[in-house]
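Below sits the subject:

***
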Amino acid sequence: MRPRILDLNVLQTLVAIADTGTVTAAAERLAYTQSTVSMQLHRLESLLEVPLHEREGRRIRFTAEGEQLIGYARKMLALNNEALDSLRQRQVSGQLSLGIPEDYAFLLTSVLSHFSQLFPAVQLQVICGSSVRLLQQVQAGELDLAVVTRQTRSPGGEVIRREPLVWAVGAEKQPSLTDPIPLALYSPGADVFREVAEQALFSAGRQWRLAYSSQSMTGLMPVVVAGLAVVPVTRDMLTPQLRVLDERSGMPALQSIEMALHRPSGRPTEPARQMAELIREHLAGDG
């Protein structure tokens, strides 16, 4: 009888469900469809011949066997990463230019630290800018690699993560949500958040006005915290100074956005290939 072998990709899905609580959120994190996530969970239960979960509305509650497996899954995924890191630690040198949207730089802090530990001989240059500008620099061959945000199902690149957008206001103060709704938005062409927000409001027949615009979230924060405007953000960008507006607010739902890796055409350099792999691991596994 052939031994049963656990698939690490399926275990990664199991951990994502445990971390997020729902199949929908796990699918968003992993850039999978909901049906793929559900299928992988059922495949795991069929392989082990034990129930691993129960549904409580939209949320997933794990059985005792499920919780036990989640613990093993985390250890196996960590050991997998440890093995990959050990094998990567051969001499890689050269230069690497990486582009990152300014408001997403915090998500890659651990990636940059990890990369510098693994490949100390690589001279790393990190450039922050708008997703539109970063994509132009990749296409011009000025960047070896870039992480960009974009609307779902956009062409090109490699999707590594999907995230829902939400409307946020100040934690203690908020503006009136009657039309025209005051918005704090990125400058035109600076990011996809503005496009998604405008499309949602137009589709809902809502009127809005631009209260403030900036190239970064840092510039938008004071106006939002002061209760003068509403801003579209991802949940990763929320701070204690912000509060999410739920569906009861009357604000239209926002589409998810994608984070994608873009590289110039042709064979990537070894530093670019290694950085891309680390970004995939960290961003697909976090959320």
